[in-house]
Amino acid sequence: MSQPDPNFAAIPANEADVIRELSVEKSVETVRNIPATVFSNLGICCLTFMASPTWVIASGAVYAYALIVFHNALLLRLYMYLRHKPRPRQVRQRTHRLSAFVSLLGGAAWAVFILLVLASSPTDVALLISIFTVATSIGALVISPSSPAISLAFGLPILTAFAFGAGAFGHFSPVLAAMVWITAMVGVPGFAVTNSRTAWDRARLHVQIAEERAERLAMMEQLSERLGKYISPQLYQSIFVGTQKVEVAAQRKKLTVLFSDIVGFTTITERLESEELTALLNQYLTEMSEIVLQHGGTLDKFIGDAVVVYFGDTDDGRTAQENAISCVQMALAMRARVSKLRQAWREQGLDDTLDLRIGINTGFCTVGNFGSDQRMDYTIIGSEVNLAARLEAAAEAGGILLAQETHALVKGVIQTEPAGTVTAKGFSRPVETYRVVGVADGTCALDQSASVTFAKDPAQMTPLEMEAARSTLEQAMRRLEN
């Protein structure tokens, strides 16, 4: 990024942007027009020489060609310097002044050529050759509308030499030559000023369009950030990257689904004011959402205090076993976090009996967009989803129940124990379930909440927490004995 020009310090920000835009336009215009200028100069040299080679040689005007060639060499050198720069590029003011100086040399060279031709040529030849050269000065105004200094430096010497030579050497009357000169001195700068104003207006328009586009982009970014809070981060990313089609469609995938809610939450809602209830619920859901994101789960929805999460929809290369393990580890982290929240709620005078229960199942589910073309929801459906919900309802306070397939995927990594069978609504056969105790090495068999609560008040521990604490202590004793 180019550093700001200190000359712009006293100019309002928008005006400085206009000046920068105009400088970029001048730079592009200069690079684009140099080849045309060189070819036109060389072309007019050929035309003037072919029109009357005898008089061009006799008048000595042929020596002015050397100046013209020198001018073109300077232009080509400037072009070779600028054409390797990135475009559009803001060329420094010194480079623009150099361009104007080179153009002045070119105008002076053509002025010398005109004076030499008019001094020794008949009127018809002089007029023919002068028309060619005057056309170059008009062309400078046409091809360099954003650089009036460059076009004036090139064109005014030519027009002045034409008017002075035509009058001084008898081709026109002095009065007519003076009128031509005055007209040129008034008309050409006026035309250059008009070009300059047009260039300024065009630069202002470009800046205005850029500012409006930036405002719209910022507004769209703010809107997308707000909308992103209503859908899962994975879905949000896939939609804006373009990998997710926004259409009513679904597909079958093997997912690990988790349902969780707070035991006793419905009861406590009757005793809390809406403001207190809102603060409690938002705090809980915020904590749960952070844990879901940390473990790479897809947060499907909130249903009151219930949280629905699934693993396996994203193309992150993880296997079904890895997804199941991550889901159970997430459930342990959620349970530990709720226990911490329970202590904070107790300090605020709220009910301290609130606890979490979780059901987890793994199987093939239908995932995708459901709804209509006007309103759709990206979610999961299927009997495996229903089973996860049934397991959550059957879990005891503080418990994490796994279905048979999830248990088969996590055994050896997650420590579990049989929890019997559950007769779930909508399922003809009893479902074999397993209760999560911790990880297989015993380091997380007792979650943080149980250890803290055990240290402070064992009477407040749930049966599951007491069992987990007992298991952890027994494993620790065995390791010490060994």
Automatic annotation (TrEMBL):
Matches recorded under InterPro entries: A/G_cyclase, Adenylyl/Guanylyl_Cyclase_3/4, Nucleotide_cyclase
Gene3D superfamilies membership: Nucleotide cyclase
Protein name: Adenylate cyclase 2
PANTHER family per record: ADENYLATE CYCLASE, TERMINAL-DIFFERENTIATION SPECIFIC-RELATED, BLL7624 PROTEIN
CDD domains hit by this protein: CHD
Coiled-coil segments: none
Keyword Transmembrane among UniProt keywords: yes
Pfam family, one: Guanylate_cyc
An annotated GO BP: cAMP biosynthetic process
Boundaries of every Guanylate cyclase domain copy: 256-392
UniProt keyword Transcription, yes or no: no
Enzyme class, UniProt record, top EC level: lyase
Record keywords, A-Z: Lyase, Membrane, Transmembrane, Transmembrane helix
Molecular function terms from GO: adenylate cyclase activity
Origin species: Falsiruegeria litorea R37
Entry EC number(s): 4.6.1.1
TM stretches of this protein: 62-79, 100-119, 125-143, 150-169, 175-194
